[in-house]
Amino acid sequence: MKTWPCTGNDVSPEVNDTMNKPERIDTATEDTMLAIGKRARAAAHALALASPEAKTKALHAAAAALRAAVPDILAANAKDIAAAQAAGRPDAFIDRLLLDEKRIDAMAQGVDEIAELPDPVGTVLAEWTRPNGLQFQRVRVPLGVIGIIYESRPNVTADAGALAVKAGNAAILRAGSESLNSSLAIHAAMASGLKSAGLPEAAISLVPTPDRAAVGLMLAGLGGTIDVIVPRGGKSLVERVQTEARVPVFAHLEGLCHTYVDRRADLGMAVDIVLNAKMRRTGVCGATETLLVDSGAPAEFMPTLVKALLDAGCQVRGDEAARKADARVIAASDEDWATEHLDAIISAKAVDGIDGALQHIGRYSTQHTDAIVTADADTAERFLREVDSAIVLHNASTQFADGGEFGFGGEIGIATGKMHARGPVGVEQLTSFKYVVHGAGQIRPK
Prior knowledge:
The chain is α/β, with parallel strands linked by helices.
């Protein structure tokens, strides 16, 4: 089972450096990683048997520990920010890495919300009785040990760890070197909270070394202790996972999201949606990267939309129609239509109605999130039906591509594949199922 989900292209240089190069595995790194795997496997067994109340209590304790550790987390984050600035990392990257008191509180609040979600483990998904009297049930069970490899977003340490625990799984987290100090501080708080509530600290483990070989060991399954891998990063990381993984994968590919403004759209609504979809947070995977405008729309549509973006500080790279709309628009290259900018940059193009929009999206989509703005119900229905993305929206911002906004309490990422999980990967998507069969002495006839 390989499913390819998305986040932003927040990939580390360390991942690019390992592509097509054999890795030398240090004995100490291998010993450390195998020990982490064994402890995580034991913790997964304990979590699978833990009561819903025990998991809820432990996650609330972890959230409280995060709030108590704010000074330590901020001090650790300051080291990561200073190193990233010294390395000349772009502003969008720094924003993904940055933590402040508000973001840490939001992180803790997210853990509290996950704690209160319905526990999926043990849920009976279906049940039936056969003519021979056998009673069948399909029941949710944890996946086991989930390995999560991520880059510049330290909040993933809390989000992913909490989601895994709520679903009865142990998590092995491998943060990128650029966020390692922050992630270590967050993990220390989470682990202390779990321990204080009686769950094993190894329920959430963090790889303590920036050694790149640790990724390879996780992809190989850590001696059979990892059941599934979730990579959160850019193309290079996902390509490596596709090549090396020996365990099932939920991959997080890039989010090249489109917003199409139809000729029957309310222009005021379209401006609000497009500005939010691009500029609310430019570095998230649900940010719109390409604006498509119906060439049959009223003449003011393209100039109004482009001006709003430019005035908001967004660089617009456009086709001839977009350039005619505003002299500040830069000519788009072929590459721009296929680029997840993750910055205050958008590609803009006029298309021949819904047919042109569908054709463009079909060519360039990463099957993440795409939106249409229109007052025409039939056109909207066609878009929602024919766009083959994990999330499709009508008259709403693509930045709603978020598990919390779906009511999932959080997410590990947005799955863009079609196997097992698609869209936000939340608590339910971190479970599998087994069949429980009750009999009364039945034997199968010869």
